[in-house]
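User: My advisor asked me to double-check a structure prediction for Glycosyltransferase involved in cell wall bisynthesis before group meeting. I don't want to rely on an old file, so could you generate it fresh from this sequence?
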Amino acid sequence: MKIAMISLQDNPSTALHDPDARGRRRHVATLSRELHRLGHELTIYTRRTDPRLPEHVRVDDGFEVVHLPAGPARPAPQEEVVPHIGEFAQCLSSRWDTAAPDVVHAHHWISGLAAVLSARGTAIPIVQSFHGLTGGESAEIERLVGRGATGVVATSGQEAAELARLGVRRSRISTVPWGVDTRLFVPTGPTTPRTGRLRVVATGDLTPQDGLDDLIVALTAVSATELVIAGGPDRRLLDRNEEYRRLRALAAAHDVGGEVSFLGHVPHSEMPALLRSADVVACPQRHASFGVVALEAMSCGVPVVATAAGGLAESVVHQVTGLLVPPQNPTLLARALRALLGDEVRRQQFGIAGQDRVRIRYGWDRVALETGRAYHRAAGPEVITTQRGAEPVYARMRRALSGDEGAPDPGVPTG
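Assistant: Sure, here is a fresh prediction for Glycosyltransferase involved in cell wall bisynthesis from the sequence you gave:
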């Protein structure tokens, strides 16, 4: 199958060899590599962010990356790129006039909008992955992209339910989780140095949604335990981060400042050693689309205490691979941490079960296979194509982008 991946804002060309690459960028690159191993032909289309970049780059992992113009040839925030989606879509359309792919897979709504617009008036099936719905100002565009796509891949059952509430037909939704590199995240190997105390490790982007404040409050009821937090900016720049300053002050106010350490950004390649150093990995997020860190910890044989939020509620099996607690409940979070930290045998049992679960359910080979099935499902004759009945959707997309109910956005192709 000839597959076109659209990753407008996240250039995956070096992701598999970049120790700092995480998130959608690494996901798209890894998925493309695994699909290539299954015999598919992959081309990834992304925005040119450097005028020196060649238009075509052949990646050793089996796929080609094509850099297309869309606004300034430099890294730019999303709001600066949105007005240039039409330019990107026109470039795609011109290419597909002569060499159409069998299926298009778009990642994030900004890529999905370009994909759906570029396939206007054709029968090219569009598969959309939001990787978690943004909501807010983007909610209307997400709804229109979801309804305009031929099929949508959700990362969890909760995201699938959210998509259905947006008006996406359930028959068009496939649920395929993010994958885990089970060759990198393994129980044996180097570990980050630690003290003689029990250790809880948590990660996050240092935003309130991470729930790290709940974890710090919970730590006050857990004795002889250190909390190591990874994520956010480089360690040298942490003092500039408002959430870091708030969390540091919170820890000091609760007399656990000496038990909490912040590592800042940790490269992807160093995460297995950090996770292996933990007695328990805590995931206290208030909302989580996928729960990837929980899965990576489980793949390393480390038990998890997580909130039953979003994808975490599906990744972690309560009383089997870890413990689940309600979000924003430091009391129950502390109780779960004490229960696991005080029972080494139980931690070992959960660790073994977690490793088995990730290997069987979340390995990239299975994720790629299920994604391929979603492509075939979207390309099947029983699914409505992007051509049929699409004009009202495109018109609403133009109005949503421009904020003008009476005129199309000039950055979006209308012909």
